[in-house]
Amino acid sequence: MNKIVGIEVPVLGILYGRDCIFIDSVIQNDSDKLKFKGEINSSLIKNIKDNEWIPYVLTFHQVIAYFSCELDTYENIGMYNHSNHADFNIVENSQWLAELQIREDFDKSVYKHYLLFTYDYVYNIIAESFDISYDLPN
Q1: If DSSP codes are grouped into helix, strand and coil, which group holds residue 110?
Q2: 132, 9 Cβ separation under 8 angstroms
Q3: pLDDT > 80? residue 3
Q4: Residues 21/118, Cβ–Cβ less than 8 Å
Q5: How many CA atoms does the CB half-sphere of 128 hold within 13 Å?
Q6: What is the pLDDT of residues 21-49, one digit of tens each?
Q7: Inter-residue contact 47 to 21 (CB < 8 Å)
Q8: Taking the alpha carbons of 92, 97, 103, 104 in that order, is the dihedral positive or negative?
Q9: C-alpha gyration radius of the chain
Q10: Dihedral sign of CA atoms 74, 22, 136, 134 in order
Q11: Would the pTM count as exceeding 0.85?
Q12: Residues 93, 97: Cα–Cα separation, whole Å
């Protein structure tokens, strides 16, 4: 059974709120990387006192599958309700990952199911890992 767990982002903590993560671009520049660039609304982050936008780059590595859907449509089809979860999550015991028929030469055990809610879209991503960088206000 899917269990959605918020990812603790270093320094920032767990990100909550529809207005928290904005995306300026999504780039699949290699066959195995998916990169998101945008801004995080610091007014929704408990650990940051400034009311500024924080530029970020979020990169997923060894991506084997992903899909996106407009947020309100996604909630209407009843997959995962945004109001009950953080904006950046890992899906433990993912049904999608369990049922995904990946290549025989890939080790399925190293992959994780990530769930990213942004202002406008939801992304489900099957990848090995991720990293995030951002510029904090001075």
Answers
A1: helix
A2: yes
A3: yes
A4: yes
A5: 8
A6: 999 999 998 778 999 999 999 888 877 77
A7: no
A8: positive
A9: 15
A10: positive
A11: yes
A12: 8
Contact present, 89 and 10 (Cβ < 8 Å): no
Residues pairing with 35 in the sheet: 27, 59
DSSP structure class, residue 98: H
Contact 105, 8 (CB under 8 A): no
Q: How many CB atoms lie within 10 A of CB 46?
A: 9
Residue 138 CB contacts under 8 Å (≥ 6 apart), including other chains: none
Spatial distance between the Cα atoms of 39 and 88, rounded to a whole number of angstroms: 14
Element (H, E) at 41: strand 33-41
Which residues sit opposite 22 in a β-bridge? 39
What is the rounded distance in angstroms from the CA atom of residue 46 to the CA atom of residue 73?
29
The Cα 28–Cα 104 span in angstroms is 23
CA distances (Å), origin 38, targets 6, 23, 26: 19, 4, 9
List the helix and strand counts (H, then E) for the chain.
2, 9
